Protein 1
Amino acid sequence: MELVRGLYNLRGDRHGCVATIGNFDGVHRGHQAVIEQCVEQAAELALPVTLITFEPQPREYFHPQSAPARLTRLREKIRALDEYGVGRMLCLPFNDHLAGLDPETFIREILVDGAGVKHLVVGDDFRFGKDRAGNFSLLQQAGARHGFEVASMHTYCLGEGRVSSTRVRDALLRGDLDAAATLLGRPYAMSGRVAHGDKRGRTIGFPTANVFLHRAASPLAGVFAVQMDGVAAQPVTGVANVGSRPTVDGTSALLEVHLFDFDRDIYGKHVQVSFMKKIRDERRFESFEALREQIQADARQAKDFFRSVPG
């Protein structure tokens, strides 16, 4: 998949597409259904699929302190979208200029002159432009004038309702990783580069691979049975802590993974960690000995989980 940052990088040979617009946080099964709808239409029109998204996300721009935790960072989103037939992601900087565009200018500058949209798929509740004044009806009227079609995305429901990023976050928050995986169509995962830490884990017999999350907030926290990709031919199982490490007075969010039966130098490796089962919440221990005993128990529980998984 091609990543294009900003309209100024859209050359003439990138003009003309079937497009959809959104945050696509998590790339869950609802998003996948929208992409499938775009891919089918793109095949009929012999055009590429372009996903139009924003950095930062609009809620992060307008309400940075209360914006929900991201399910996927941009790099994680690109990796997920690449599997579903998206040819191009147009990533627009969400700034004062973009936030201040009236709906008609947004349509003309971004959809018509910029991307050359021929078919647009959005939700019938989609709002855009300054003060969210633009809506689905306005897009249809503009499409009739500018020569592009506007289609409503199909609602994708599972269980009690529509699949959404909010439902995925709620499942992660309550530690229901099975529910999150059902909504996503895959286990929830985070990725990043293994970095040097304070190496305290080695002093208690549990060396860890440290992955700094580079997020304002994490959508999950606690201790988990995990699988790590990117360090061996097959995923390596382990036990991981996501949180601020209160026993050592930590403050910034960190993912620490102790891998089972694995002893290689993986500093600098870009890895993906999939969360398979929640073991417990993070908590503070009164001593490193108490922490060591608890990690031993966590590791046993994680190993028991993986032994119980078929295959």
Note: Residues 288-308 form the longest helix (21 residues).
Protein 2
Amino acid sequence: MSGEATHGAVRQAYRRIRTLAAAALFVIVAGTAGYRVLSEGVTSWLDCLYMTVITVTTIGYGEVVDLTRHPGAVRAFSMLVAVSGIGIITYAIGSLTSFAVDGELRAILRRRRMQKTIRELRGHHILAGWSGVARSILRELLATGRPAVVIAPDAAAVREAADDPDGLAVIEGDVTADELLQEAGIEHAGGVFAATDDDHTNIIVCLSARRLNASARIVSAVREEENAVKMRRAGANATVSVVGIGGLRMASEMVRPTVVTFLDTMLRSTGPTLRVEEVPAGPSAVGRRIADLGLDACGASLLLAVRCGDQWRFKPPADGSVREGDVLVFMTTPADLDALRSRLGA
């Protein structure tokens, strides 16, 4: 169900509830007042209300309204109240049954849970669009335990690609709509992927995301190389050429097949998830030797390189010092990544 359709279903459900409540209240008020008038004020308001309730609910207890003055009118009025009450109850049961059978109730409840989850997210990733590239991005985010919210034209297609469809936050609708980005928690997001198959749509996503969150990192897919500059001007921090990456992969398959096999095995292994990750050095790690950081206690994590600005130190020595602004690159697992961040004060 799309975001607009789900909102429509919610509004429709609320309208049904309000209509039923108003109708029930009207029958009760009118019935109570009617019995009071027909008894010419002899029967108390409480007894009139009691008579109305037992008539509407068809409980069938004895009459408590004075019938001596207008017995025929009272009974005719009671039949009218009973028919009205039964009609309301029948409509309510039918509406609720249709609501449950059509799956609307489940969809609304799931959306409520999803909205609550999104409101609590901080530093999550928003995946705008659903394409072959987006599928790969989502698999990687899920495999490495990173929270994500997907905005796509077809929510069902996204859930089919996930192992836990009910636990995945998917918003259906136009990926360029500001209100959907806001619903996805753009204000608190750490990053946004513009991953549609259309460069112009990706440019709009970049513009909207940057306007709504000036600090989020935005990465955009690009199919036409000349559009990369436009995307950066629109707010993207980085662009990834689908064609360029495909060509590089083909060349690598030809000239370094073992390396490609190694990387594929690392990314697709069904065993422990192994990834190349980066961890910025925190204040507690700055000025200390790498050997003194206790990285050996972080599982099988392997330090590959250290980056400071545009400078790289590959295979850094154990007696090398960590400097302010350093970002350490490791080969590690998601579980060990948390330990590394703790060690480096990130």
Note: The mean pLDDT is 85.
